[in-house]
Amino acid sequence: MNRILVAGAGPVGLTAALALARRGFAVTVCESGDALAAESRASTFHPPTLEMLDDLGVGGELHERGLLSPRFAYRDRREGLIAMLDLAVLGDDTRFPYRLQCEQSKLTPILLDHLLRYPGCGIEFGFHVAEVAQDGGVTVTSADGRTVHGDWLIGADGAHSSTRRATGVTFDGITYPERFLVASVDEELLDWLDDLASVNYVFDPVEWCVLLRTPDHWRVLLPTPSETPDEQEYERLGSRLRGVFDPGRPWRVAHAGMYRVHQRVATSFRTGRVLLAGDAAHVNNPLGGLGMNSGIHDAVAYAAAIATGDDAAIWAAATDRRRIALEYVQSVSHQNYERLRATDPDARAAHLDGLRAVAADPARSRESLLRSSMIASLRPVPA
Ligand SMILES: O=C(O)CCc1cccc(O)c1
């Protein structure tokens, strides 16, 4: 039995592992943590990702844990609701015409549980990738001296990927000037505004934001200056949240975190018998929910290519996934960011009018949703 190594037990690594296990490969997953990560940034599953996970046999369990969200909204802080887009118009394009809101940390235990049902498949926790040697196959050595050997290594070990570093691949791109502060709140925002969708992009030239619902919490994303002390930002969070809506009492914040946001793509997704996937290969801002989804698409494409045993097919998959990262994921996520924060009044007004027109026309809605749902990044779509 051929063995494939996967670095990283996040949603991307475990999807790759399960897709390979189902194709008859033995798989060893090397995870640096002592358990699956509980923290969760990504929380939206787009239709093609739901198709892929369903094909892997985990769609039912994921749906049990998530919120079906057929609609998402564009709002303006001053003008209120601008446009509500309904993925139901994609009914002929996908068997899942909605987003599923669900924290990624709810998916990973399901994937691992399925993986461990396959003979020869397992996970090594506490395995920090220290060395990657290519010797016909790939031998990976951990910081504490363990070694594993396989035919291929898929590096899905995150933005700070040890696999990427070990193969010497550079990670070019930019860092945004502001940090993103995400507050999870113990409030039911629908008690205050009943025209909210599960995901709401709120335009504002001074302080744009995103309001999104997960099974556990509503989350509020606020752009935050780069250099201010963290304590100062957490102290003023309450007043910033009241600026979003004022319920006449303090918001209850369950937890909050701040992070820097990058747009970067690895110079190559393949080095010899090592493939990079997910955040190890490309990172982008979270606007549009493209990061985890495109990583899962990488994983499924790599598993299919490895199963062919054809080196040219594996090169083609790595090249194609890099093209999609550059031409689609980087470009759409950056455009989402620029539009939310646009300051020019004419450009803002034209964009909001454009969104109203799209929402009012089912054919234009479908065209726009084929792109934002990522379907158009993966397959040709009939007119
Ligand atoms: O656009 C989306 O669907 C996700 C946006 C987002 C923003 C901030 C945090 C987060 O978990 C998701």
UniProtKB/TrEMBL annotation:
- Xref: InterPro entries: FAD-bd (IPR002938), FAD/NAD-bd_sf (IPR036188), PheA/TfdB_FAD_monoxygenase (IPR050631)
The record's EC number reads 1.14.13.127
Record bears the keyword Oxidoreductase: yes
The keyword Oxidoreductase is assigned to this record: yes
Tell me where in this chain the FAD-binding domain is found.
4-308
Q: What Gene3D superfamilies has UniProt attached to this entry?
A: 3.30.70.2450, FAD/NAD(P)-binding domain (3.50.50.60)
Q: What sections of the sequence does the record tag as coiled-coil? A: none
**Which keywords label this protein?**
Oxidoreductase
Q: Which GO terms describe its molecular function?
A: 3-(3-hydroxyphenyl)propionate hydroxylase activity; FAD binding
Alphabetized PANTHER family for the sequence: 3-(3-HYDROXY-PHENYL)PROPIONATE/3-HYDROXYCINNAMIC ACID HYDROXYLASE (PTHR43476), FAD-DEPENDENT MONOOXYGENASE (PTHR43476:SF5)
Name of the protein: 3-(3-hydroxy-phenyl)propionate hydroxylase
Task: Give the source species.
Answer: Actinoplanes campanulatus
Q: What is the lineage of its organism?
A: Bacteria, Bacillati, Actinomycetota, Actinomycetes, Micromonosporales
